[in-house]
Amino acid sequence: MAQAPALPVGFELPLEPRLPRIGSIDQVALEERAATLAKRSIKREAKIFALELAVRMTDLTTLEGSDTPGKVSALASKAIRPDPADASVPSVAAICVYPNLVPAAVERVRGSSVKVASVATAFPSGQSPLETKLEEVRWVIEHGADEVDMVIDRGAFLAGRYAKVYDEIVRVKEACGETHLKVILETGELGTYDNVRRASLLAIAAGADFIKTSTGKLPSSATLPVALVMLEAIRDVYDETGRRVGFKPAGGIRNAKQAVQHLVLTHETLGADWLTPDLYRFGASSLLNDILMQIRKEKTGRYQSPDYFTID
Amino acid sequence: MSRLPVRKTYKLFIGGDFPRSESGRTYEAEGQNVALASRKDVRDAVRAARSAFPKWAGMTAYNRGQVLYRVAEMMEARRSEFADLCSGPKEVERSIDRFVWYAGWADKLAQVIGSSNPVAGPYFNFTVPEPQGVAGILAPQEPPLAGLVSRIAPALVGGNAVVVVASEPHPLAAIELAEALATADVPGGVVNILTGLREELAPVLASHMDVNALDVSGADGDLAELERLAADNVKRIVRGAADGQSAWEIEPFLELKTVWHPIGV
Amino acid sequence: MTELERKQDQAPIPVGWEYETAPESRDIVTLRERYGHFVGGEWLEPKETYTTISPATEEPLAEVGQATEAEVQLAVQAARDAFENGWSALAGAERAKYLYRIARILQERAREFAVLESLNGGKPIRESRDVDVPLSAAHFFYYAGWADKLEYAFPNRKPKPLGVAGQIIPWNFPLLMLAWKVAPALAAGNTVVLKPAETTPLSALLFCDVLRQAELPAGVVNIITGNGRAGAALVKSDVDKIAFTGSTEVGKAIKRELAGTGKKLTLELGGKAANVIFDDAALDQAVEGIVNGIYFNQGHVCCAGSRLLVQESIYEATIDKLKRRLQTLRVGDPLDKNTDVGAINSQAQLEKIQELVASGEEEGAEIYQPPCRLPEKGYWFVPTVFTNVAQSYRIAQEEIFGPVLSVLTFRTPDEAVEKANNTPYGLSAGVWTEKGSRILAMAQRLRAGVIWANTYNRFDPTSPFGGYKESGFGREGGLHGLAPYLDFE
Lengths: 312, 265, 489
Fold this sequence. Notes:
The structure holds 3 protein chains of 3 kinds. Chain A is an alpha/beta fold. Chain A has 11 helices and 8 strands. Chain A has an 8-stranded parallel beta sheet. Chain B is an alpha/beta fold. Helices cover 42% and strands 18% of the residues of chain B. In chain B, strands 7-6-5-8-9 form a 5-stranded parallel beta sheet, sandwiched between helices. The radius of gyration of chain B is 19 Å and the shape is globular. By secondary structure, chain C is of the alpha/beta class. The chains are: A alpha/beta, B alpha/beta, C alpha/beta. Chains in contact: A-B, A-C, B-C. The interface between A and C is large, with 51 and 39 residues. Strand 10 (254-262) of chain B pairs parallel with strand 17 of chain C.
């Protein structure tokens, strides 16, 4: 039937009520729309509003092999009080770390509003047995993580084994219980926007609280067109089911201008309701300082130097 | 005693049939009584052309070329009949060769007149010629056969259906051609030939709202009035050679269609 | 956690996000109080004048000339003299260099032209900045290259210029239409007399300063301003060709006027384009295409996708998405960089739109307009969608030339083609489907000069543009856009 074109095998998902169609994406028109929205001119109060919001939405991230409890502790300080010189700058939403660093992170943010998110499920590749992945998820939750950022099995997805990808997310969500689950699609490996849309709907159908673009380990990550595809998928699900799924662009967002562009995209696709840390996060590390510099520039009217902002 | 020849009744050619004028009128030309077409005959001819147009335009260019070549074959078989009805064998040969020449253009037009356009963006963009639809043609009064062929062949090769008003003083060659067309594989209605008074028929054709182009190459009299009438539905006005051939005689009967499509994965 | 940290933590999350105004500065444009006609490289003091305004504020911008018959004749004579005294004999390569100069100067002064275009015409600065002005420069750049290559364009023909071309352009894309007309005319070796639209003369008048900077010989381009009277005088004058873009009604009148004169004519007239959405289309992008198709430039676009044909099986999904998208359209100050829909070009056009919209409601169509605060002064119309439209309604038949979409449905491809082609017009059409073979079949069957498949309202100097049937004849753009300005031996 024409209403559900290119519906891949294994894609009959128990999304209730079911989306009437998967749909497809035209690359050129999508990229043009994203480019048009990126040209919105956001100035003065509107800019400060967006920048402070972006701070509140940030999952301040460190995902390095060299991470230590000391590094995480410094990151947590930054998360709670991003700009020691300006008390009006709010805390970030969460810090995002590797499983081993969860206990240290939990310890340091205790009592603040900053949450601890942990990547899991054999981040970043996702190439481990399911049981290992579930074990990892259970472990980080036991150790106090508030949020879990899982990766999907891109190998299975690209091989057309959608049911496997779906089942894994369902199992991880079960393991999470009440813990917030963000599902990383790693869009840079999916090859087409059609796949980004499919993977988004698949993850949502399987129970994702958030869908997230990338691991940050690839050169191609949270581009504006990719974000637009995912936001539209979230919107379609909301229209059809009333369910609100969050969005987290991560990787490649390094400056305030990009963050504002992402917020414009969200504002004009999903509306103001999604402009809250409950439904929107930026996965970033160096982004925060650029935002702080821009906030101070807006407040003082002077261009800033990185020397005046702490690197944690 | 010599045998009394059987004479032909000269009729119109509409929708592949040979009807008399619905008005029942005739006029005398070249020593024969010839059908004197009326306004309503123009109406019927345009209707026939309109309904024949999609099939003719929808044929492959290869096929249309073969049909037009077939017309030349049918004309060749009637060389002596044609010769009696025009200036002689030379005009007949020229006319037949002209059909052959135009037949060959059918599947080359798009390559010469179309284009691929390198737009500044991720789009594939091309322009192709298409027929305009129904062309009204006022055939030149002279030469009777070559003039007619010079005007209808370029219109036909591009995929148009035509309604022709034949030479008023020399209509017999046109009716002879109609008989050749009827035995070639030209679908009924693609060519419709009317004989009669130019003054009576031309304004009807010029003002007809379902005619897309008006070829005035053979027009005489009040050309300005015809063009004014043609303005009501923005008809294309074609002015071409009364006895000549060129790809640029085809082009005025064509529209250009440009198609855009994004290039993406 | 420290005390400081705790304080910070309790700051409330603000809600709602209003973009601040982001107006482009007007300072870059310097207007004179009064403009004459540009004839023979000099300003001709006009006998009569009128006031040109900003449609967004109704504020007067300048006094401009209302050309009389005598003034039109002076302009034509100046063009004739320039044609005979040098321009027609100038080597193509030299003509090309003048055109390249014009293209470059337009690029250099792009901001100035964009602001002026939005000021005088009411279109959003986003469009004049990103579409009108860059495309205008691109047209000059493209045709510049043809000037010394004309003999390659038409096999087996010897091209030569026509002489003086009279050009009459509309108010929807003032500078771009000037470029569409002037660039190929000059490349082909003609001289021109151009009349911009009554309501939008200023960018053409500023263009005269570009000609000065380019040192184009006097009289090669002459610009006269005024209303339809000036246009009629130009049509009747001793020009060799008329190129007109505007309404079908005026186009027919011009065609009647030129009947029997043998003068060359090209017409780019109205349209009532169908934008056909199949149920397998990439829907979010199709919705963007619908929006771009009808609300681009306030719908003041002859090729606007004003008739939306949606396959019944996705009708509701499409309309829901469309309505939601309309709510994000920002209507207002044309000079604000965030404005999506600007001002209606004139009082007269606003009244025409209002009249047709009223007819749509009377005939029984269902109207939707997003909540929208319009400025108090100026001419404005809220982006509008009509659903439950029958093919017979006036809003489905007549060109509204405003931000008003009529939605119809279809069930099969045959029905879509039949409805799409059921119009005296044939300028453009859109088709949205993910199925390749269907795109080509539809492109073949839709009777229109431009088919946008999975896109809409795209323009390029290399791409021929023009209509079938009552949408006019002749092509502008591309190789085919040269022919209307050439004679062949």
